[in-house]
């Protein structure tokens, strides 16, 4: 799941997770760069670099690149004491920090590992579906490009072949899907179209679906809006406030429909619209309601 | 509650910071346009490659050179433009290249750096390098002194720390003092330095592949003559950020999460002793005047007025939904003001039309630049 910041990516990612879990799929929602938005949505304490069960069939993990790196190196070296010695070395830590893209690479590596039926970590749970709440637009492209870039820099050694494998994993149309979350406003629509194009051209990924999130309901017809406009002009107090709010809603809902049409024209992937949720704070129940609209 | 021009009185630099999706680019553009309209020569810088700023200013595209926004465009919006508005989009890579060219002792070392693959990676993609280059460009423009006010739209970092730490982290990286010793092509130093370090290096080589190590060694060698220059410059950039003529504005939205991030960001600014000016909350649902009586009263009044029970129910339902959001926003903003211990919280309402052009910027500026009295009137008119 990718898209511009603030479009509700996490909510949609969790909604997808809830839907899959309800259908009996063992699902995990992954956050990257130590974000904890999903666990917060569940009102859960921070999960960190652990696979924590949120509800039946649904787990959550926050992928910390440093932890991924430790895990990765252990898988390479096989000996815990040797790994620990290595991580105590300043030189090693410095090199790891200085290598561009290494953090992103091991993060994607962890996502790949979670998706394996033959898990690399001991007693790893098998998942049917791994949902990734990827970084926002600009960083998202760079993130997904990392394996390819890395394979080009490190031309030999295990990282070279692993980076190539991760690149194939991202582009594997049969097993990996990509979705963009958008909002019904001018700039988010433009950016979603640009993002779809960049994913295709720079990463080699075809977007499977675009979610238009936060669509207002069309509560009033045009004729009704005209009548409300008359009243809004002459009444006062609560009646005036309520009719004005209705007119605002009408005008937003209309401009949103225009943006939805623009999005449909400008992207190649099918567009699925999701309703705006009139709730003060979005929690897991809101995500659950959204999950029923995802079909 | 101060207006934005009160907050920016006597300031030479205004930095808009906040998480993604809160309208930071639009806010930066609106502030720049508003200050220019009041007679200043203003330049707004963005590093957002999404063309948002260019679009909203009626410019076809922005490049690494500042362009002046046509004053006629403001006339068309009935905005009197007493000063000048300039805009540019920061090209992080080009800025980094320029910086290297400036710091390099000779052409040969410049080219060695520019052609190094590690450098190309860093200048394009290393987390923090965009942020650092934004600061760098800001510093350069400030030093040139061609503008009265510079407004910077910062990149949408997920972590506020990235942005504040960028100059330090990058110089540390380039400096790489301890590392460079081990990177000498002979590997002699590594042998001398003892077994632990050479094992670490050997394992790292095994993991990432040999080429990367060679490239890194080459990178540090190429950069070796420029480190002092980079450090000195980073120091000056940092002191510019902390200058009393610099002002950080935190931009956020009214939902719980953006408010939390604004609080966090403010704390980081205070910890880093950077000058905080105020916070702008975008897309606020203004509360309507307090309802007299209960919902049933409103419903019957609406039904009577409209002569349509069904429509009245929908209007009342919509109003209740809207009020719930307005109450949430008011609660969150109150919390924000309390946490930040500031009166400088400027609210911009959720407008009926989404903002993406000069007309929209002018509409936003009615709120950003409103005096307290004007703001009360605006809120009442909207209720």
Structure description:
The complex is a heterodimer of chains A (295) and B (383). With 295 residues, chain A is α/β, with parallel strands linked by helices. Chain A has a single domain (2-216, 267-291), classed as Rossmann fold (3-Layer(aba) Sandwich). Chain A has helices spanning 9-22, 37-41, 65-77, 80-88, 90-98, 102-115, 137-153, 157-171, 186-203, 222-234, 237-266, 284-291; strands at residues 2-3, 27-31, 52-55, 58-62, 129-133, 179-182, 209-215, 271-275. In chain A, helix 3 (65-77) crosses helix 6 (102-115) and helix 10 (222-234) runs antiparallel to helix 11 (237-266). The model of chain B is unreliable at 188-192 (pLDDT under 50). Helix content of chain B is 59%, strand content 12%. The longest helix of chain B has 32 residues, at 309-340. Chain B has an eight-stranded mixed beta sheet, sandwiched between helices. Chain B is built from 19 helices and eight strands. In chain B, strand 6 (246-252), helix 15 (256-271) and strand 7 (276-284) form a beta-alpha-beta unit. Chain B is of the alpha/beta class. Chain B folds into two domains: 4-168 and 226-288 and 330-382, P-loop containing nucleotide triphosphate hydrolases (Rossmann fold, 3-Layer(aba) Sandwich), CATH 3.40.50.300; 295-324, no CATH class. The two termini of chain B are 20 Å apart. The interface between A and B is large, with 73 and 77 residues.
Summarize the structure.
Helices cover 56% and strands 13% of the residues of chain A. Chain A has twelve helices and eight strands.
% residues in beta strands of chain A? 5-15%
List segments of chain B where confidence is low: pLDDT < 50 over at least 5 consecutive residues. 188-192
- The value of Rg of chain A in angstroms is 23 Å
- CATH 2nd-level architecture of the largest domain in chain B: 3-Layer(aba) Sandwich
Structural class per helix/strand content of chain B? alpha/beta
Question: What is the rounded distance between the termini of chain B?
Answer: 20 Å
Q: What's the total count of β strands of chain A?
A: 8
SS-based class of chain A: alpha/beta
Residue-averaged pLDDT of chain B? 82
């Amino acid at each position: 799941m990718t898209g511009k910041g603030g479009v509700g990516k996490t909510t949609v990612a969790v909604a997808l997770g809830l839907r899959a879990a309800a259908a009996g799929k063992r699902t995990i929602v992954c956050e990257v760069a130590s974000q904890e938005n999903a666990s917060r949505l569940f009102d859960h304490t921070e999960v960190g670099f652990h696979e924590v069960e949120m509800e039946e069939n649904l787990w959550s993990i926050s992928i910390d690149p440093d932890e991924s790196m430790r895990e990765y190196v252990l898988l390479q070296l096989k000996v815990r004491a040797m790994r620990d010695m290595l991580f105590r070395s300043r030189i090693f830590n410095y090199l790891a920090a200085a290598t561009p893209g290494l953090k992103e690479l091991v993060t994607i590596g962890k996502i790949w590992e979670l998706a394996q039926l033959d898990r690399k970590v001991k007693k790893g749970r098998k998942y049917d579906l791994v949902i990734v709440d990827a970084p926002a637009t600009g960083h998202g492209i760079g993130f997904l490009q990392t394996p390819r870039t890395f394979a080009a820099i490190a031309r030999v050694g295990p990282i070279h072949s692993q980076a190539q494998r991760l690149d194939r994993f991202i582009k594997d149309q049969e097993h990996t899907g990509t979705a963009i979350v958008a909002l019904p406003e001018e700039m988010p629509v433009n950016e979603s179209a640009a993002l779809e194009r960049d994913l295709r051209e720079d990463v080699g990924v075809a977007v499977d679906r675009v979610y238009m999130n936060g669509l207002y309901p069309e509560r009033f017809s045009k004729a009704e809006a005209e009548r409300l406009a008359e009243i809004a002009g002459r009444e006062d107090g609560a009646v005036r406030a309520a009719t004005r709010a209705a007119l605002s809603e009408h005008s937003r809902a209309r401009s949103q429909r225009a943006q939805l049409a623009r999005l449909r024209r400008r992207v190649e992937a099918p567009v699925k619209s999701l309703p705006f949720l009139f709730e003060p704070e979005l929690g897991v129940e809101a995500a659950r309601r959204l999950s029923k609209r995802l079909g | 509650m101060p207006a934005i021009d009160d907050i920016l009185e006597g300031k030479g630099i205004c930095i808009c910071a906040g998480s993604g999706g809160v309208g930071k680019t639009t806010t930066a553009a609106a502030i720049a346009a508003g200050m220019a309209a009041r007679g200043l020569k203003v330049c707004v810088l963005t590093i957002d490659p999404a063309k948002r700023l260019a679009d909203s200013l009626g410019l076809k595209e922005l490049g690494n050179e500042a362009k002046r926004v046509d004053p006629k465009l403001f006339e068309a919006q009935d905005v009197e433009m007493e000063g000048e508005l300039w805009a540019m989009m920061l090209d992080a890579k080009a800025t980094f290249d320029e910086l290297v060219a400036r710091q390099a002792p000779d052409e040969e070392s410049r080219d060695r750096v520019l052609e190094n693959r590690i450098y190309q990676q860093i200048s394009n993609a290393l987390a923090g390098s965009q942020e650092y280059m934004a600061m760098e460009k800001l510093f350069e423009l400030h030093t040139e002194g061609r503008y009265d006010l510079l407004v910077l739209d910062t990149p949408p970092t997920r972590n506020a720390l990235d942005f504040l730490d960028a100059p330090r982290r990058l110089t540390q990286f380039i400096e790489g003092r301890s590392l460079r010793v081990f990177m000498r092509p002979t590997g002699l130093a590594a042998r001398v330095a003892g077994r632990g370090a050479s094992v670490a290096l050997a394992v790292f080589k095994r993991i990432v592949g040999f080429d990367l190590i060679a490239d890194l060694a080459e990178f540090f060698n190429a950069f070796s003559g420029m480190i002092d220059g980079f450090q000195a410059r980073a120091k000056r950039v940092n002191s510019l950020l902390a200058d009393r003529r610099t002002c950080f504005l935190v931009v956020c939205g009214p939902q719980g999460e953006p408010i939390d991030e604004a609080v966090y960001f403010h704390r980081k600014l205070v910890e880093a002793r950077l000058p905080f000016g105020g916070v702008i909350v975008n897309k606020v649902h203004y509360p309507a005047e307090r309802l007299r009586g209960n919902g049933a009263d409103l419903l019957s009044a609406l039904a009577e007025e409209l002569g349509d029970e069904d429509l009245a129910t929908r209007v009342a339902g919509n109003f209740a939904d809207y009020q719930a959001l307005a109450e949430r926003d008011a609660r969150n903003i109150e919390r924000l003001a309390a946490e930040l211990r500031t009166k400088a919280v400027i609210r911009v309402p959720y407008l009926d039309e989404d903002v993406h052009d000069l007309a929209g910027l002018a509409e936003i500026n009615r709120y950003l630049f409103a005096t307290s009295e004007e703001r009360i009137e605006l809120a009442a008119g909207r209720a």
